[in-house]
Amino acid sequence: MDYSNKRRQFIKGSALTIASGAFSGLLPRFGNAQSSKIKVGFMLPYSGTYANLGVGIENGFRLFVQEKGGKLAGREIEFIRVDDESDPSKATDNANKLILRDKVDLIVGTVHSGVAMGMVKLTREAGILHIIPNAGAAAATGALCSPNIFRTSFTNWQAIYPLGKHIYSKGQKTAVWVTWKYGAGDEAGEGFKEGYISVGGKVIKELAIPFPSMEFQSVLTEIAFLKPDAVACFFAGAAGAKFIKDYAAAGLKGKIPLYSSFLTDGVLDAVGTDAEGIESTAHYGDSLQIKKDKEFRIAYAKAFKMQPDAFGVQGYDSAQLFAIGLDAVKGDISNKAGMIVAMENAKIDSPRGVWTMSKAHNPVQDIYLRRVVGKENKVIGIAHKALADHARGCKMT
Ligand code: BEZ
User: Is 52 a pocket residue for ligand 1 (Cβ < 6 Å)?
Assistant: First the structure.
């Protein structure tokens, strides 16, 4: 990693962008008077398999702002939403709606790694503040890292890397990896394999289906045929719920233990007992003995009449991070360099536990081991303390 001269280069880069006129439509944004509202644009999935993740992120963000009386650093906040449909082919158009048409001050998005990569290409060029509240694409805080881009969730590698060691410690020496074939699935697969193989595990087969297919029959038939000691997977959202149910219906539950990172988040009400006992690694879970988490869960349940999950926490922390930046410049959003310094040095008092920002702008955080017990992803230990992503290729230019 090379972080030298990053701020000088960021300023130079912004000037170049403005001079080139490529984003000249953005200029009025920098001039938003301090008395006017600050515009926050949510570019999230509100339809499709990741819809609940998008809603959770927005809820979490709004909750923090509500707790501050609807204002951050004394400035009122206006929200604008775009449904990105988890469709990478629409990422540029959707991001431009918020950047060029609505002239938002901050863009918050998104869930799907492929869509996030489309956003990052625009936001690093435009220099607009961008908080990624979920998508784990490595390049966003790796080769394409940028001073104006921050992530409050995880990298796909980070969330699952510690899982392999746990599986192997249970005497399960062979595994099948199964995923959706797109960036997040590929990167989660690399993270899983790195951890599992490093302690002696053998991945006997890697299976994949296209995103966002929920046709799991062919992979389940193959798993039954291969009879590995364990199955590890990356699926999430509505499809995660269906995978859990199909796994049980195929007679595999209780025979071949199923593991994951986000398979069981936000779906436990929908799947009943089919998820019981599934173990996973992630940066959040239920039954954490953390005061901040207890307060957050009560407030979230009161505001939205439902229990929060990891995605709600990511939205809440995105708002916390933004507020830290805004407070540092007393609400003067045009002082972006000042906001960035404060956000880089932020120590986030999160419901997941306190975390800090890496130099590449990705959380350095504990990764928990969880087991489904009833309707909870119950935390049963810490799988890896203060885990940082490799941030490969990050140069902050
Ligand atoms: C991703 O595309 O990066 C992602 C989506 C859902 C959960 C976790 C990661």
Answer: no
